[in-house]
Amino acid sequence: MLPLEGIKVVDLTRVLSGPYCTMILADFGAEVIKVEMPKTGDDSRAYGPYVNGESAYYMSINRNKKSITVDTKNPEGIALVKQLIEKADVVVENFKPGTMEKLGMGYEDLKKINPELIYAACSGFGHTGPYSKRPAYDAVVQAMGGIMSITGPGEGQYTRVGASIGDITAGLFSAIGVMMALYHKEKTGKGQKVDVAMLDCQVAILENAIARYCVNGEIPQPRGNRHASITPFEDFTCKDGVKVMVAIGNNGLWKKFCTAAGHEELIEDERFVANPLRTKNYDQLKPIMDEIFLSKTSDEWYESLVAANVPVTYVNTVDKVVSNEQVLARDMIVEANHEGVGPFKMANTPIKMSETKGGYREAAPLLGENTDDILKNYLQLSDEEIEAVKAKGIL
């Protein structure tokens, strides 16, 4: 039995942050009913690449869900969705604040028909504050939230993080919020609203950047691939021109590295005997490290440092990631197969539990694939009633 089996979720989300949240819930057993607009569905269904006409982007973040199409611009369509929510434990939405209220489905509206409901709202700036009603996308919150200002090759050279970390962290925190609310409900019987802002999530993960500013008044800047507080902690070019990433996070690892590199003299060098000194004297240590790494090929360094138990890796491109032996051993790449779509690979859940294995079970649904079943099983509509609703263009 999966930990969230029996939990019913009405998913009103689209694109990334909301669907990522509900995918996590679905991966661990929640029954997620994804409500989509007829004909078009979730915006991400129009994002490539495609597998036999279906978006792999959409399929990679909507597995284990069911899809029902309902026109939520139609009052009768909204009435149908409300009937689903009456029977749900959780509703998740990622509209701009105020949108759900205009539809008559804000938290205050919905808790009247389902007092125990957990209402999770994932938005750009949250449901309070002066920016609340502004639209937001990943790039906007990365820039506003500071992470972009500490990412890049050097001072003033700001770079967006390659993955949509603004959306994904919001999806992660939303899922955590839902599960905490479910636990609270189990103890008290009370539902509540979970309000997660993409901007807040970016601030929450800035960790030592905020600490450095608040303690020292230092405004952090991009430092390329090096760490601001740990040295050496960056990539180095080897004899064959290939880079390896090395992370020497404590003095014990420094000694192991120096020994494996054949430069034991550096262990007692007063400039480098402790991490604060290595960081302070970075400009003196960097050329020494560069010269050391140019003495061997990347394979030679990789093998010798792995043997010495020093954290090291090649800088893997995605093709190397999806074939990496550790990634595969952890069942992190799975092949989905949907009738009419065919096989395609995607990342699996990173949460590994000893008793309740979550992750991929079913491929993402085709648009409206489960509409009839949901109306019959949840709302007890007859075939004739379903056909009558369809005739109105609501489904």
Automatic annotation (TrEMBL):
Keyword Transcription regulation applies: no
Key words of the record: Transferase
Entry keyword annotation includes Transferase: yes
Gene Ontology molecular function: CoA-transferase activity
PANTHER family the record matches: SUCCINATE--HYDROXYMETHYLGLUTARATE COA-TRANSFERASE
Protein known as: CoA transferase
